[in-house]
Amino acid sequence: xxxxxxLIGLSSVTGEISASPGDSWAASxxxxxxxxxxxxxxxALCNSSVxxxxxxxxxxNLPSTTKSYGSPEDxxxxxxxxxxxxxxxVDRHYALLMPSIEAGKDVxxxxxxxxxxxxxxxxxxxxxxxxxxxIVGLQSRSSPFIRKMKQLVADKTIGDILSSTxxxxxxxxxxxxxxxxxxxxxxxSGGSFxxxxxxxxxxxxxxxxxxxxECSALLTTRWPETKLLKADMSFDRxxxxxxxxxxxxxxxxxxxxxxxxxxxxxxxTFKDTPGLVWRVFGTKGExxxxxxxxxxxxxxxxxxxxxxHERDVVETVExxxxxxxxxxxxxxxxxxxxxxxxxxxxxxxxxxxxFKEAVEWHKxxxxxxxxxxxxxxxxxxx
Length: 382
Hints:
Blueprint: E1 3-8, H1 25-36, E2 40-46, H2 50-59, E3 67-69, H3 72-76, E4 83-86, H4 93-102, E5 106-110, H5 117-130, E6 134-137, H6 144-154, E7 161-169, E8 176-177, H7 193-209, E9 212-220, E10 225-229, E11 235-240, E12 246-253, E13 259-265, E14 276-282, E15 285-291, E16 303-308, E17 313-317, H8 323-326, H9 330-344, H10 355-373
Parallel strand pairs: 1-2, 1-4, 2-3, 4-5, 5-6, 7-13, 8-10
Antiparallel strand pairs: 7-14, 9-12, 10-11, 12-13, 14-15, 15-16, 16-17
């Protein structure tokens, strides 16, 4: 029997369906896999109103038997829903999911788990009490590229790790926020460059490299004002940015004490260069991973190369997605692999993330932010 899914956040906006900023992440990343998989069946939608849910059912040609709900409490009481999937803004996660968690439903929520550490801990405690099985959308760990990086490190393809560096640029002007992204400028929302962009990227890197022992961070805001865009990409208004747009991390990897440095920022990428460059330097060689986009998407252009110092040659490592997600849209591939992992009962080591691991990552990011706010500078006299 397929797992019966109740989906929160499938957009009912009329018009052409695409993976654009005007569409929801639920439509771009979750729906393609759910419609194609024999393991899942969408039996209910929950939107801001029953009429909105009904409009989404019609828009995406879902079966007429699909139930429509306008409140998370009603969805939580539906006996025909096994798994509740929440794909909305992070500041709505807690209120929308707590009824289903308390009802003992299994839940899949996008990262970040919640707006703050306290909410995340409460959600985790409620899931432990009710017995809910949980999935958190840190889907970068499910990417075959991250799995390959982890394998290359474990196999000591480049010997022992000596150090690792990563740089990432968002790729568009730093003083502009895409449509519907105004919440990322507000500290209270919990959705920010640190929690989302850095959160996804650093989680994948640390997972592949075996974990992080300790870390310090420097968070700065270089564009204190930003332009908010409408759905048609025209100018809407100027907003004050309360969150960091530059994040620099330095840390020590678990078990081998190798240093790692990461620099991530808003702003355009240097012309004709990849937006993400991640290098792992070892005693026998070096691995270089490059990508045009974030690690949680599969937008094409991802490339892993290994430089063998002794032979003085660079070889490209072949990486392929599993056939089950190969035909999906780029945004849906890694999310699809996470759904597959849930069905197969994969472990945390294999890339599966639940509420427990998400709370731990919330704690780490929270400590990085507080550490940056309380930093002590050494005065250098010129």
